[in-house]
Amino acid sequence: MNPNDRMTRRQWLGVSVTAAAGLAGASAVAATTTRTAAAALPHLDEKDAQAAALHYVHDAKLVDPKKNPTYKPGQHCANCLQLTGKAGDAWRPCNIFPKHLVAATGWCSVWAKKPGTA
Ligand code: SF4
Fold first, then answer.
1. Which atom of ligand 1 has the smallest separation from the CA of 102?
2. Which pTM does this prediction carry?
3. Does 50 have pLDDT greater than 90?
4. Are 114 and 81 in contact (CB under 8 A)?
5. In terms of domains, do 11 and 66 share one?
6. Is residue 35 domain-shared with residue 68, that is, in the same domain?
7. Domain extent for 25
């Protein structure tokens, strides 16, 4: 190796700091892109074929317990294991309906308690 090609410690640190800043920036862009993509999803229609098949409703208080014997008061999307996105948002992504947002107040027959929720 030619001694003139060697990086000084200062040059190496400069490259490392630049690379770390680039990775942090890329990560922030990816997170923003994911949030933006989720926000761009349409709201799930209760009449959507999959939604209807899973008895999805926007308001869990309107669930008919006779038709949905697994439903218990207090169950809703916001305390379901399948809900993702930002806590507090009225409409959020759900793993079961990946092309739509569901109402945080909603419910469907796939509901499963999210650990740590009431
Ligand atoms: S799977 Fe959970 S979060 Fe998704 S619609 Fe059904 S109850 Fe709501």
1. 5
2. 0.72
3. yes
4. yes
5. no
6. no
7. 1-40
